[in-house]
Design goal:
heterotrimer; A mainly alpha (about 270); B alpha/beta (about 190); C alpha/beta (about 270); A: about 270 residues; mainly alpha; about 90% helix; C: Rossmann fold; 6-stranded mixed sheet; 4-stranded antiparallel sheet; about 40% helix; globular
């Protein structure tokens, strides 16, 4: 009797895993389809570019405070931590290089994207989920206006525009934060700080690659947020779950993509 | 909020982003200091390039005059073929000498050019014939140990001439000569 | 010209193992107010979505102005939808736009009218529903009845030939209900449009409808003018019109033997 119960339980678990897996694959396909549709409808939405500008305001400008404050602290911590390690090897002048390279290559794009997913991504998911729950998207469709060109595409492009701007500002402010800790606080020579940085930071390999990373993160983050909202069950619970999923999926996607992009860029 | 206000804010936002990018390029990156305008390419063969990497600087008298464009292996001569992009503003004689140096004890490696006395200048596609290989730390150390080992042996075999022999090996041990011993002879 | 602006011809719709409609035939003559009635979950709203082309029938067809809806391309469906206005159950106003912009929305999307003309038209439509004074408010500042009137103004923004109402009376106080009731009739006659009302409120619907269809168990159970139906001795219609709790629609959800259910617990 117990044996058969165990067997039934095992079968049920296996079936659950299979169901879960096939659902994920299905969602991946649906997300890719929405991405394709968004690109296809972009031309239509560009004709009303003020919609995109409006969304840049909501996703970009309103995220500015959290991004800049975080950047400042991240830069200061980097300088402090870096100094205590570097001074053991007597090369505390390299602190500028350490701060700049960490920010430009990794922390700028990645931390910005993670904060963006939490601040703007969830807002996008909740907004679209609610528009769906209150039949606003349906109403739009019945008015012969495509929600993809009117609602989805402007938000998508706004995210793609806002992310690199935010990431660049993050790196910039982070380096300033690092400077403030390293030079006035610790007493590293200002000239050495900047000259070492300038000698070792490359325009294309460090700065441009960072911008490219943040562009890719912008596409991924915004698309995930949009899809989760668009796909959310039209109930209060459905929207709240979708919002959580946005943060989880975006964070995993950012870190996974970061590894792929980094290895790709280094091998170039 | 009014559409014009939003437009203004977004304009400021994007302008800030562009300014930050420009700031990074100028103040943080080496776009201003390290940028090289039009270049011409010359090649140089080395038997050993050590840790030289593409994009490593090419310096003359300590000033960056170019960058390493490419490093290849020549299967016929078993040598490394290094292409150098050198700024068009600078002209170097045909018999310029190319060395691979190390910045500091453990720093990155770069190519140093020492001008010769030839009338004719290097032009695009030329080959620098006089080169000196990278110093490989292990080789240097093993050479040094070899010399050290040889020193007491020399002292014990000839007791008469001990004074002069020890002076010579002391000079070796002091460091200038081991470098000479392992560096390749200048190629014709 | 075809006297019927909308025709449902042997229309069936459903998901894999549950058919919602099985061969529905309805005609909607021009200029009339037609009601579709039935209990909750009988698929009345689905019929509106089939007419609007948001769903595809499994069998049969819905024709608007002689054109089969589900055989149209996307552009074709959008062209048909411009002849339709739809009032959603909760109004489905765009929460990020003001009352004025909500009514202006279809005009801005589908016409190139100058701003002054849009201004006049919007106030005209808002005046028709008695809310000209509320044009500066945001949807969140409106009561349920007002929101529905604004949504009605938006639905008639482009002078549609067909106006569809999804549960227009649900959740309204008696005064708002009377206002909406009056508006449906007067707007229909003023615009020369055809109105399709989906509702389960017998009293209000019977006062304004010219003809009523009863939907039950996926088929048209009864049809006729309100007077005919009041006198009808069909058991289902009688139960529905006179709001009796038991009849052909049973009080109990289908269940096993009561005694068995109660005693069965211990046997497990």
């Amino acid at each position: 009797m117990i044996k058969s119960n165990l067997f039934v339980g095992l079968i049920r678990t296996l079936r659950g895993i299979g169901h879960d897996f096939s659902k994920r694959i299905w969602r991946l396909g649906a997300g890719a389809r929405l991405f394709g549709l968004t690109l296809a409808y972009s031309g239509e939405s560009f004709r009303r570019f003020h919609l995109t500008i409006r969304e840049v305001y909501f996703t970009g400008v309103l995220s500015l405070i959290i991004i800049l404050v975080s950047a400042f602290f991240v830069g200061m911590v980097l300088a402090l931590q870096g100094y205590y390690t570097l001074q053991k090897y007597g090369s505390s002048e390299s602190i500028g290089v350490l701060v700049a390279l960490s920010l430009l290559r990794e922390l700028g794009p990645v931390v910005t994207a993670l904060l963006f997913a939490g601040r703007a991504g969830t807002a996008i998911t909740a907004e679209i989920g609610l528009m769906k729950a209150t039949e606003q998207l349906s109403a739009m469709e019945m008015m012969a206006v495509s929600p993809i060109s009117r609602v989805i595409a402007p938000r998508f492009w706004a995210g793609v525009i806002a992310m690199p701007v935010l990431a660049t500002l993050f790196s910039m402010v982070g380096i300033l934060g690092g400077y403030l800790v390293a030079v006035p606080l610790i007493g590293v020579d200002a000239g050495a700080f900047w000259s070492q940085m300038q000698a070792n930071v490359d325009w294309q390999f460090d700065i441009l690659n960072g911008v490219i990373k943040s562009l890719v993160f912008g596409v991924a983050c915004t698309m995930i947020a949009l899809f989760e909202g668009y796909d959310a069950p039209p109930t209060a619970e459905g929207v709240s779950r979708a919002t959580t999923r946005t943060v989880v999926t975006s964070s995993l996607a950012i870190l996974g993509l970061d590894f792929v992009l980094t290895s790709f860029m280094i091998s170039m | 909020m009014e559409r014009t206000t939003i437009d203004l804010w977004v304009g400021i936002f994007v302008a800030l982003g562009l300014a930050a990018l420009l700031g990074l390029a100028m103040k943080v990156g080496n776009l201003t200091t390290g940028s090289i305008g039009e270049t011409f390419t010359v090649t140089a063969n080395f038997e050993n390039i050590g840790g030289l990497k593409p994009r490593a600087p090419v310096k003359s008298a300590g000033v960056v005059v170019g960058r390493v464009a490419d490093i290849k292996f020549d299967p016929a001569t078993f040598e490394a073929v290094v292409s150098l992009n050198i700024d068009k503003r600078y002209h170097f004689p045909k018999d310029t000498f190319a060395n691979i140096y190390t910045a500091g004890l453990l720093g990155e490696q770069y190519i140093g050019l020492e001008a010769g006395g030839d009338e004719a200048s290097l032009v695009n596609g030329d080959k620098i014939t006089q080169t000196q290989d990278a110093v490989v730390l292990e080789k240097m150390i093993s050479q040094f140990l070899y010399n050290k080992a040889a020193e007491p042996a020399a002292e014990s075999t000839s007791s008469n001439d001990s004074g002069s022999a020890s002076t010579k090996s002391n000079n070796d041990a002091l460091g200038a000569n081991p470098l000479d011993a392992i560096t390749e002879p200048v190629k014709p | 010209m075809n006297p019927n602006i909308v025709e449902l011809d042997n229309l069936s719709f459903g998901y894999k193992n549950r058919m919602l409609h099985q061969g529905i035939n309805m005609v909607f003559p021009r200029g009339k107010v037609i009601a579709i009635m039935g209990g909750s979950g009988s698929g009345k709203t689905t019929l509106l979505r089939l007419i609007g082309g948001q769903l595809k029938p499994s069998k049969g067809e819905a024709r608007v102005d002689g054109q089969v809806v589900h055989k149209q391309s996307r552009d074709g469906i959008y062209r048909l939808r411009r002849k339709m206005g739809m009032l959603f159950q909760q109004g489905a106003l765009f929460t990020d736009l003001s009352v004025y912009e909500n009514v202006a929305f279809p005009m801005r999307e589908h016409t190139d009218l100058p701003e002054s003309m849009i201004h006049d038209l919007v106030l005209l439509k808002l005046n028709a529903v008695g809310l000209r004074g509320a044009h500066k408010l945001m949807p969140t500042e409106l009561s349920g009845g007002m929101a529905r009137r604004v949504a009605l103004a938006r639905a008639i923004a482009l002078d549609p030939d067909i106006i569809m109402y999804d549960e227009p009376f649900a959740g309204l106080d008696p005064i708002s209900m009377a206002v909406i009731c009056e508006l449906i009739r007067t707007l229909n006659d003023a615009l020369g449009a055809t109105s399709i009302i989906v509702s389960h409120d017998v009293k209000e619907t019977f006062t304004i409808a010219d003809y009523v269809y009863f939907v039950a168990n996926g088929v048209v159970a009864a049809e006729g003018t309100p007077d005919d139906l009041r006198k009808s001795d069909l058991p289902f219609v009688h139960q529905f019109v006179h709001a009796e709790k038991d009849g052909p629609v049973p009080f109990h959800y289908a269940a096993g033997d009561y005694k068995q259910d109660l005693l069965g617990f211990e046997a497990k």
